[in-house]
Design brief:
It comes from Chloropicon primus. This protein is an alpha/beta fold. Helices cover 34% and strands 17% of the residues. It has 3 domains: 2-57, no CATH class; 112-227 and 245-357, Spore Coat Polysaccharide Biosynthesis Protein SpsA, Chain A (Alpha-Beta Complex), CATH 3.90.550; 416-664 and 685-722, Rossmann fold.
Amino acid sequence: MKMKMKRSVSTGGLKKEYSYKSISSLISTSKKQARIHKLCMVLLFVVALSQAFTCTFNSTCGFQKSSEDFDRSFFGGKVTLKSEARFLIESFTNSDGQQLDGTLALRQTHGTNSNKKKIPKIIHQTYGSKALSSKLRYLVQSWRELNPGWEIRFYDDEACLNFVKQEFPEYVKAYVTLPKSVERSDFFRYMVIYKYGGVYTDIDTECKTPLDEVLLPTDTMVVGWEYEGTTQEDALNHHYVRANQVLQWTFMAAPGHPALREVCDFISNHATTKFSDNKNRDTLEKTGPGIFTDVVLRHSKKHPPFSVNDEELWPVRFLPWVGLGAHPDNKEGVRSDSSDVKVLHHFMGGWKSHFVCWSKCDRKVFRGHSKGAGFTSALHDSSSVKSELYLEYKERNLFPVSANFKPTFEMSVYRKGAEFESGQDANDDLFKYGRWQAGMAPGEKPGVVNALVGSLGGKKRSVKLLDIGAGIGFFSLAAAARGHDVESFEVSNMSLKAFETSSKRNGFEDFIKIHRVALSDKNENVTYGVPAGTSLGDGLRHGYPSLEMGLGGQKQKGAGGGDKEQVTVQYKRLEDVISLNETVGAVRISVNGWENAVIDGGMALFKHKTNYPSIVLVEMNYKASVDSGHNNPTETLFKLYNLGYTKISHAGPICKRRWKSQTRSIFSLPFSWVSGGSLPTTTTWCSLGPEDFQTFLHDKHSLMGENVIFYKPRDWSVDKQLMRYGEGASSTTTTK
């Protein structure tokens, strides 16, 4: 059946006409029968819509009620005991993250800088002349509408030159020497923010989020990531000059920020330096994101975010790629329609010359650089300075990014492809979106980290999180940011380096205790033989390999033989590592199919009369479970169910498949003309009962994890105290 919609202008506005092509000769083309057919289709659609939404909100269908607030919380103040198959999900987390008493969290959230470090409410924009096109005027208006109370200052070329002459006479010679207007524009933006502070943004940018919601009281400088590549050559091939590049079409800083002074001094000293035979790249290196990236990263390393109250330190906060760097065409997998976009650049300037030679002209330069020679072959009179700056950048393998979480904290992440968790590139997701979750897109609801950390609730450090298979520590750091105590378990050296760096830079060492062991049902050291020169694989790297480790290796105690590399992992039983006298509020288990072994080694905790965890989050995957040789997901589900965790929900690819199966009839109809195609494509959480456990067997070949949350209530009065509302939180979602 086809539907055609004709648009015609009439006195009443737009008139919609629908015509259908029959799929059977039984349907006449007469007007009367066509009207009857249309009426039947509408009735059929209404019935299907009613059934689908009944299924959405009725507990017998096994789905949680959808809500726009689910990314902010999972467990709230109570659980509906009338519903046997699922939880009540309530809004629990205050949007300001004010609900906890952790001194560090409070300092992060409520701390303030001295007056000289505050970012003033001034927006600076430049353009060649005062004559703006209608499109540019529209974009400028977006800044006015979303930022009432902010002052907007506009500078044309003449005003920029007068500003430099008046405020920075020491830079005038360099400024007028720069041959390109875009280079002078770059230089000006650093100077004007250094002098007055505030926000600089290009004239062709659109404000998508009010600046008051972007800036924190503790911010002294806020920048955003523009690009992430795997290698420097990869960056050059995409017309970037850094494999991890910071943009400068929008940035924010307090007046007098020393990083901006350093950038200005560099440009002044090298205004006549030729950095590349490629004219575009020469500009990017001299005044653009090349030098800007090098300086702010070096500055950030010396000024950690933890020391915001130190008068001598000026920290830099790096927004994830989506924040300021999303492209209108959704390039590199970063969506411009994401709610996480703060500023959208429309790229209307077009300053780059269409010169085909980009990486080829610099191939000689690149080869010298890759061998450790830096950019010396591309530099003239300042090779030592440039080499020092770039080589310092080149030695970095961890990059800071502000977590998309409240209160925020800084994550240290590797470039994409460095290491995986639950079959996903957590580093890449964090770099792009500031968060990650197993089996789901980073920005997809529900926010699993909010669900887990929100379940800890409370205003005191009364319960802790156990993070088993912590990886680079995103969940642990999020809990610590809200003042909770955390015990984390990880053996991957790469993950531990990033995790410990993040913990130290945020000042979380008193909140997070890291155990360099893997958990199992036995206390033992196991040596694995891995074929020499073969990647360890993510399972083994984290201490939880498959039977064959995906490499043709084999498990062996003691010394290995042949040409195998020896990798030894220390295993402990959970109940032998932690204290059973402290209340554990939640446990996260991400162990590549070893769930049963971990649970068996912690039976004393899960069976404890009072201190057992109420919440257990398992990142579950059928294929990983079977490959590990320990169990399949249904065994884990029944094990926890028999331990009293009878209220179960899950989110991920399996939940999506169940939702689509339930709503198949509605999606087979031409409903776009009724609803504009806006019907929900997925629910938030799927409920799970014993009768549904076998659904996990249908995911035999998927490498994606499923988030499964188990709830076991303590005495209700105790849980009610633990899961208290945050100050100001009042929204409630009920499920019947």
